[in-house]
Specification:
The protein contains nine helices and nine strands. The chain is an alpha/beta fold and 243 residues long. 26% of the residues are buried. Bound molecules: S-adenosylmethionine.
């Protein structure tokens, strides 16, 4: 079972979001546990002040190192006591860009701990000492790290064996084999004058597989040509792409 902890000033945002749909089913099914700890509970001054002004006259406020360190120690996520296969992940727009390969890597862990930033983020010394990864979900800036952590957890948990009804649907997803997904259709057979492609109603599984591969290649070439450089392509794929 994967254990996921969030260090967050807003536990209710995180745990509330995870109590629906697939994430709820995954935790009720015993595939994952979710917990949240609030660094504010580890501030021992009278105002429980978790932030302070940055050195150097920078604008905004930073989350102080000590309350977060105490929270991480309380859940045994410090370098000295954390168990093996634990990833302590700082959500950070300056971090490595999250992608499906990283989701697969995190799905192998036994424990994930997400640090959700606020204001201008964390004191650098905290993340340097405690975090194994610093991860961004894209080249834009959000107000908080709760949403990035939830995005990553969703991508990871759906990869855990048994969480999705069918493993085949994982294999057909975009990015599972480095390409975008082929387009999909459902009933009715003709919708507002547009029919479903004939091949999908042919019952010929080999032809359908080939058609889907071709469509995936063409969609990737059109929409995300950068992905093709890393995808595993055979001679037939290269023929499709050069046609
Ligand atoms: C306003 S941002 C801080 C931005 C920071 N001053 C900078 O320029 O890199 C507040 C928090 O939101 C989260 N955050 C914002 N954008 C993010 C992104 N693209 N990926 C991951 N986390 C992000 C981080 O936890 C960050 O500490």
């Amino acid at each position: 079972m994967l254990r996921v902890d969030f260090v967050t000033l807003f536990p209710e945002i995180v745990l509330g979001s995870l109590s629906h749909s697939m994430m709820r089913r995954a935790s009720e099914g015993g595939f994952v546990t979710f917990d949240a700890i609030n660094p504010r509970d580890f501030c021992y001054d009278s105002h429980q002040k978790v932030d302070d002004v940055p050195y150097g006259g920078q604008p905004g406020m930073l989350i102080k190192a000590e309350p977060v360190a105490l929270a991480l120690e309380a859940i045994e996520s410090n370098p000295e006591s954390r168990e093996e296969r634990t990833a302590v992940i700082s959500t950070d727009p300056t971090g490595r860009r999250f992608d499906q390969a990283m989701a697969r890597e995190f799905a192998q862990a036994s424990r994930l701990v997400f640090l959700c930033g606020h204001y201008e983020g964390f004191d650098e010394r905290l993340t340097r000492r405690f975090c194994t990864h610093s991860v961004s979900i894209g080249d834009f800036v959000l107000t908080n790290g709760e949403l990035p952590a939830l995005v990553m957890v969703d991508a990871v948990v759906r990869l855990l064996p048994g969480v999705l009804g069918s493993q085949a649907s994982l294999a057909a997803d975009s990015h599972s084999d480095g390409l975008l997904s082929a387009p999909n259709y459902t009933r009715p057979e003709v919708w507002r004058g547009e029919p479903v492609p004939d091949v999908l109603r042919s019952g010929n599984h080999e032809e359908i597989r080939r058609w889907r591969r071709q469509q995936a290649l063409l969609a990737t070439k059109l929409l995300r040509p950068d992905l093709l450089a890393k995808a595993k392509l055979d001679k037939r794929d290269l023929d499709v792409l050069s046609s």
